[in-house]
Amino acid sequence: VSSLNTQPELGAEALTIQGSLPAMQADLSAAIRAETNVQIAYESKGRIDATFRTAIFRFPDDAQFALDRNGTVHFHSKSRIGIRDFGVNRARIERIRQRLQQNELDSAKF
Question: Which residues are bridge partners to 96 per DSSP?
Fold first, then answer.
């Protein structure tokens, strides 16, 4: 699944974050690290590459996240093995999206 793919079955809306660039990077990193069976392969300003392992067979899924100064996060996430992932990557991206949205709601409360 990718935020840059226009095909409905392969595309998804980009993630969004608010705040300063360092704060947005920290929030994105925390939302990704909250997933089970994740290893961050690379992290730098505006970019995170991660490998997730599926729960049962521990198949690797690779994901790349690119954060811009406006708070848009483009991503690409796919199974390293096989053709189909049975919606696992889309579901993972949606959980990350929900964490980011919840974090913004929590931050807005005084």
Answer: none
Rounded distance between C-alpha atoms, residue 14 and residue 86, angstroms: 20
CB neighbourhood size of 58 (10 A): 9
* pLDDT of 31 higher than 60: yes
Distance CA 78, CA 85 (A): 7
- By DSSP bridging, strand 72-79 and strand 38-44 are unpaired
Tokens linked to 90: 């889309």
Give me the numbers of helices (H) and strands (E) for the chain, helices first please: 2, 5
Tokens of 95: 């959980």
H or E stretch covering 104: helix 88-108
Q: How many other C-beta atoms can be found within 10 angstroms of the C-beta atom of residue 82? A: 9
Does the pTM of the predicted model rise above 0.90?
yes
List pLDDT tens digits, range 72-88.
999 999 999 988 888 99
Residues ≥6 apart with Cβ < 8 Å to 54: 37, 61, 88
